[in-house]
Predict the structure.
Amino acid sequence: MTIKCALIYDFDGTLAEGDCAQHGLMPALGIDDIVEFWSKVKARAKQDDSDEILSYMGLLAAKAEALNSPEISAENLQKHGATIPLFPGVVGWFDRINAFAQEHNIELHHYIISSGLDEMIRGTSIGKHFRMIYACKYHYSDNGQKAIWPAQAINYTTKTQFLFRINKGIDNAWDNEAVNRFIEPQQREIPFDRMIYFGDGDTDIPSMKMVRYQGGFSLAVFDQKKWATPKTQDKVEKLISEERANYVVPAVYDEGSHLDITVKGLLKLFKRKAG
């Protein structure tokens, strides 16, 4: 018997180093001080009593507008996405774990749920591997060069709605009637207890908690180059003490890594429980 399972990833800090917009895009817009930019985002959100993700998308669009720059067109965002540094082993991860799943009669689907920019993620070498990418995106002018407004903004709480879209097999972000329609749990396409969520921090906590609560598993990953910093250790300690993550592993996707063995073990667990 073949079963369906889902691996669901955050992007920034989970599959890739840092925030995706800081690679290629921000330098092209003349944003050299990344810390200062995010401080402005927080200040704008507080000033307007608004969502932080909308504030960051708005400031990027305003910067491009002021420079009359096409850097946030869909085409250019994909070009910038190609420059994003991925964690060790990520490039070969999908083919390897898919082959493992196939050997064990598991139909494996990969998803992104991220506050990063959709087109940048699609521009990476791994963009082709995802059944769906749920991420922030702009609505563009007719020529595709000017961002008019945010078409989709995903923050830490809105991430959870996309878990239900995956659960029910809804491959879009717009059909709210479908996502709210009642479907018996046993009739849903991918049960929560056959999901593994990969995340790296605070914005992933609601999703981690939901997947765990529904019987799936959450993996907290961390950049091993930053392990010695108090910020990283405090974050990991918090995720464990507050029961957010089932496992904490370095963001190393190489064959035989801690992460690799953990995921393979969980997939075999799903298969065993399915009978």
About this structure: Strands lie at 3-9, 106-117, 132-140, 147-152, 195-199, 217-222, 247-250. The longest strand covers residues 106-117. Residues 258-274 form the longest helix (17 residues).
